[in-house]
Amino acid sequence: MSSTLGKKLDFYVLKVGGIVVVILLLTTGIGLYLFLYPKEVTDVGYAPKQPIAYSHKLHAGDLQISCFYCHGNAEKLAAATIPPTQVCMNCHLVVQRENPEVKKIIDSYTQNKPIEWVRVHKLPDYVHFKHNVHIKAGISCFDCHGKIYEMEVVRQEKPLSMGWCLDCHRKETPLTKSPRVEDFFEKAVQDKHLYEKFKNNMKQYKGIHWVEEHERIGCSLDCSACHY
User: CA–CA separation, 227 vs 218, rounded Å?
Assistant: First the structure.
């Protein structure tokens, strides 16, 4: 009987030991993957090649065009949306028409064929994020998208993970010292000196808040606030 009992104990020890080893290997493998390839999980740094070499640095930075000129729906609707070719043609009907990249825009317009831009920022389908709600609450475009006005090629700057969102939602008045940089660009169109001051010393504007209609408010931690 002792021999039979010994065999059973050996079997269970091997079985439990095998399960433990498998769990350890999986945990170690996942841990190493997350440690060595964090960008593959969060997509931080993702900067796909676009069909047209559009420079946000040139348009939003050097030319000081407001984000909302092209992405006006961000203040009104849940989705910011990609601007149609017609928006590009408002300027390029007469500007830089001989530029090879601009010619692609003109071809899109004359052929009535949308430009197939590659999406950079994307949340899971089970998350409902509303741009207009966040903008109304006082969140600047740059809080989530980074310094777009410095990017030749748009890349994902923030992880957009649940933990990252909750870090903001847990604050009663999130990011209260972050300015609405678009306001400065709007003013800079008329005031080159202001733009140069802002561009060279952004930190000095960190205490300026949004305009009254964008007063920052608290955020919900209820699951249904973000999930269906």
Answer: 18
Taking the C-alpha atoms of residue 217 and residue 173, their distance in angstroms, rounded to an integer, is: 6
Could you tell me if 81 and 73 are in contact, meaning their C-beta atoms sit under 8 angstroms apart?
yes
pLDDT tens digit string along 203-220? 554 444 444 445 555 567
Q: Please state, in angstroms and rounded to a whole number, the distance separating the CA atoms of residues 59 and 196.
A: 16
Q: Give 1-60 pLDDT, tens digit per residue.
A: 556 656 666 666 677 777 888 888 888 877 766 665 555 556 888 999 999 999 999 998
H/E element, 183: helix 181-188
Provide the token pair at 163: 């933990």
Domain residues of the chain, as ranges? 14-42, 56-82+117-225
